User: What shape does this take?
Amino acid sequence: MEKMNKKKVTIFTVLTLLISAVVMVAVSLISRGINDPIKSKSVFQGGMVIAMFIPLIMALAVKADFRGMGWKPQIRGNVRWIIFCLIVPMILVVIGAAIFFLVFPDLYDPRGSYMLEEYSRFGMDFEAQLEASGMTLGTYRLIMIIGSVTFIPFVNMFIAIGEEIGWRGFLYPELRKGFGRVKTWLIGGVIWGAFHFGAILAGGYEYGFDYIGAPFLGPIVFIISCVSMGVLHEIIYDRTKCIWFPALLHGSINGAATTISLFMSAGDPEKLAKYMILGPAVNGLISGIPIMIAAIILGAHALKKDW
Assistant: This one.
């Protein structure tokens, strides 16, 4: 059995985490110093996109086996996994958000006042613009939801591929040579979560700055989320042998997550900020429960097949 290349794994992990931290902290501080909200958000999001390709660059640096990552799309025999990548994330995200809103019903707003409030920060009357184009909020939500299970995941896939080459293409397969599945899921998930620490701590990524347990609980919850999602990504890559499938799942999760803002209330911003660590986004401690359960079920099934 081929042994794990500890030197490559160490160099890849250290450099990826170090460089990503520098990039994310830098763009976070720069964006927070910009008064124009549109420019501020653009700088931060642009920096995050750049950071997503750092794992790819580091995989190149350690001379990972790119040819063995499965670049040719394997459609035949994998249609069920394509359907899984497109549909299952939305189901899990919706169920997770529903659980969160059941616990905090006053943070739910079918009109999406949170989204409208966000647009108003950028000087836009979004609802008026929709009406001018002959569209209602309900129609817009429907289009976004349909898009999140059809074309949006494929668009996001080309950004997510930067991370997936590093994580699923190089890191997870190397870890499996030395630790087996369960330890690979745990170690890989911790590293994947730590990759986002710079943005979480300096930029308020996903949770903001005013959540309960800040600033320490955010990184911990994000690691839990990455361990769970990492299980799903690793299993799909292992079954398909094609790097585009975990990239599609990654893009699908990101796309589905954006739809939740369409149902959030802006009525109590302090309470929402306080409980963002719990949800309703997919990486919240409450809203992430369905993905954790899915990871346990599929993980147990994968282990059973291994045995």
About this structure: The radius of gyration is 19 Å. The longest helix spans residues 152-194.
